[in-house]
Amino acid sequence: MTDKKRIDGNDGSSSNSNETMRRSYGLPIDAVSGGGGTGSPAAGERRRKRRTLLLVLLAAAQVLFLSGLLVTNYAVGWFGKEIQLKTAPIDPRDLFYGDYVVLNYEISRLPSGLWKGEGEPDRQKTVYVLLRPSAASPEIYEAAGVYPDKPAAAGDEVVIKGRIDYSWDREINLRYGLERFYVPEGTGKEIEEQRALSTVRVSVAPWGQARVNGFVDEQKP
Predict the structure, then answer these.
(1) What would the pLDDT profile of 59-102 be if each residue is shown by its tens digit?
(2) Region label for 186, one of left (φ > 0), alpha (ψ between -120 and 50) or beta (otherwise)
(3) Is the pTM higher than 0.70?
C-alpha cells in the first residue's frame, strides 16, 4: 500500500510540476496536452482556413472591380452618343505603358461665365458640362454651360461629366478622364509631330461618362 501511494503521489507531483513549468514559460497548458488551445493542430488548421478564405475574397473583389471597369467602358460605347471635340496632342511616350498621346481639349479651359452654380466653383468638385454643336462647325461640339448637377439635354445636346482641376476669376480648368489616349506602339511620336489629328471622336454616355474612340482622320473600328 505504501508503494502504491508513493507512486500515485509521484504522478501527481510530476503533472503539477509540468503545469507549473508551462505557466512559468508562458505556454498554454493545452499546447502539450493536445487540447483545443491556440497551439493545437486544430487551431492552426482553423487559422490556415481563415487566411485562405481571406485571400480568396480579396482576389474575387479585385476581379469584380476590374470587370466592373471593363463593363462600364464598353457600356459607354454601347449606349453613348459619338461627338467630335477639338484637341491638341502632346507628350507622346509613357515608358511603362507604351505609346500614348496626352490630349488638351478646348472644353478643358472654359470661361468662368459658363458656371451655372451658386458661388464659386470648388476645386476637385464633380461637375457636368452641357455640350452642343458649334454654330460654325456643327460636327464639332462646344461647351454651353458648367453645372453642379446634371442638366437636361435637348435635341443634339449631350452632357459630359468632369472634375474641376482649378478655377479663378476668369477661367475654369476641367478634366474629363479623356486626357490620355493610347495608340499602337511606335506611332505616338508620329501622331504628335503631325498635329493634324486635332479632332477626336468621343462617345458620351447618358450618365455623363465618356471615352475616346479615336481620331477623326482614322477609320472607324
Answers:
(1) 777 776 555 555 555 556 667 889 999 986 565 555 445 577 78
(2) left
(3) no
